[in-house]
TrEMBL record:
Domain OmpR/PhoB-type residues, every copy: 124-218
Name of the protein in its database record: Transcriptional regulator
UniProt xrefs under SMART domains: REC (SM00448), Trans_reg_C (SM00862)
InterPro entries documented for this protein: CheY-like_superfamily, OmpR/PhoB-type_DNA-bd, Sig_transdc_resp-reg_C-effctor, Sig_transdc_resp-reg_receiver, WalR-like, WH-like_DNA-bd_sf
Cellular compartments per GO CC: cytosol; protein-DNA complex
Record keywords: DNA-binding, Phosphoprotein, Transcription, Transcription regulation, Two-component regulatory system
GO MF annotation terms: phosphorelay response regulator activity; transcription cis-regulatory region binding
Pfam families in UniProt: Response_reg (PF00072), Trans_reg_C (PF00486)
Modified sites of kind 4-aspartylphosphate: D51
Every Response regulatory domain range: 2-116
Record organism: Devosia chinhatensis
Length: 219
């Protein structure tokens, strides 16, 4: 999953990126509204964390522009605790959720998980695909109840595919959603990680759809 953080406070921006990266997300960052608007308008994100009080272009304007352009990416707004009007305006502008500053990082992570989960049509943090179970909160994967040890990249790949189980996902889509913009996107990397995952999951769990990409099955 790939997240965009738009926050002008350098320390908070770094803290958010570190926490999200530690939680297994690919993270891009922007420090002003114009840069954030450009990235959100041109890159495919699974969720955006957007501060309202941004230089050059405020967060509400950024959000309104995205929604007018038909961008449906889930957005979590960061608001000032005493500005209830910001929260109302943000929801009316198209925000999916908000959190007030100062906040606990675990709350932000939980809200991001919920946004990503709901956008993919899942009601629970536990996603099941046949004998494979993924706890999106802890990152724990089991097969027939037995824990499976995955690397961070393998887990990121499996998580995206299980959030979109049954869908044929191209290599390009996987690359765009699993790595940040600074990653050296060698197309062979996806094939390597799919190959490694297949060795740890039930046979035929991940299927190749010739000329289109991959699909995870099992239900």
């Amino acid at each position: 999953m790939r997240i965009l953080v738009v926050e002008d406070d350098v320390n908070l921006n770094r803290q958010l990126k570190d926490a999200l990266t530690e939680a297994g997300y690919a993270v891009d960052v922007a420090f002003d509204g114009e840069e954030g608007h450009f990235l959100g308008d041109t890159e495919p994100y699974d969720a955006v964390i957007l501060d309202i009080g941004l230089p050059q272009m405020d967060g509400l304007s950024v959000l309104e522009e995205w929604r007018r352009a038909g961008r449906t990416t889930p957005v979590l707004l960061l608001t000032a605790r005493d500005r209830w009007s910001d929260k109302v305006q943000g929801i009316d502008a198209g925000a999916d959720d908000y959190v007030a500053k100062p906040f606990h990082m675990e709350e932000v992570l939980a809200r991001v998980r919920a946004l990503v989960r709901r956008a993919a049509g899942h009601a629970s943090n536990e996603i099941v695909c046949g004998p494979v179970r993924l706890d999106a909160r802890s990152g724990r994967v089991t097969v027939d109840g037995q824990a499976v040890k995955l690397t961070s990249h393998e887990l990121r790949l499996l998580s995206y595919m299980m959030h979109h189980k049954g869908k044929v996902i191209s290599r390009t889509e996987l690359t765009e959603h699993l790595y940040d913009q600074d990653f050296d996107r060698d197309s062979n990397t996806i094939e390597v990680f799919v190959g490694r995952l297949r060795k740890k999951l039930p046979e035929d769990c991940i299927q190749t759809v010739r000329g289109l990409g991959y699909q995870i099955v099992g239900d």
